[in-house]
Amino acid sequence: MANGFHAATRLVWGERIERFEQAGRTVAQFCAAEGVSTASFYQWRRKLRSGAPATPSLAKFVPVKLAARRQAESVTVMSVEFPGGVRVRLEVTDALSVQS
Fold this sequence. Notes:
- The protein starts with a helix and ends in a 7-residue tail after the last strand.
- It has helices spanning 2-23, 27-34, 38-50, and strands spanning 74-81, 87-93.
- The mean pLDDT is 78.
- Helices cover 43% and strands 15% of the residues.
C-alpha cells in the first residue's frame, strides 16, 4: 500500500509540475492557487528532475551457505558495521565436529 501511495503522490506532483510550466505564473502564485507549499513544490521538482527512483532502495538479505568447520568452537564468520554504529555479527557454532 505504501508503494502505491508513493507512486500516486509522485504522479500527482509530476502533473502539477507540468501545469506550472504551462501556467506562466511565479512559483508563489502557482502554489497558492494549488494550495501547496512552495517548499513542497521545490522538493518535488528537484526529486522529479533528478530522476530519483519512485521507491527508495531497500537493503535485502540473501541466503548464505557456510562450509563445515573441523573444530567445535564459536567463530566469527562475518561482521558488518553500518553507519550510526550498528554492528551485525554472524557466528557459527559447530556443535558436531567433522572427522577426517
